[in-house]
Design a protein that fits this description.
This protein has four helices and no strands. By secondary structure, the chain is mainly α.
Length: 92
Amino acid sequence: MPGGNMRANGRPANNSWEAVQSKTFTKWVNARLGEHSLGPLDDICTDFSDGTALIQLLEIIGDASLGRFNRSPRMRIQKVENVNLALDFIRG
């Protein structure tokens, strides 16, 4: 196959592409959050899991409040509620 180690979907066979994309997106998210004095993220895959950082990012880029949410979710249901709030906002 021309171009070297490629998967059928056209992506590189190793995870370097995903790592670069994750690092780039994390830097972009941190830049947006930093403009509003919000803490930086280390890994978007884990730091978005409770929904709080995702909601804060959506409020910044969407220039709208998503309303009340669990700012310190401890139980799984609270995390799910936060993520669902963010997804509902994205859906429109």
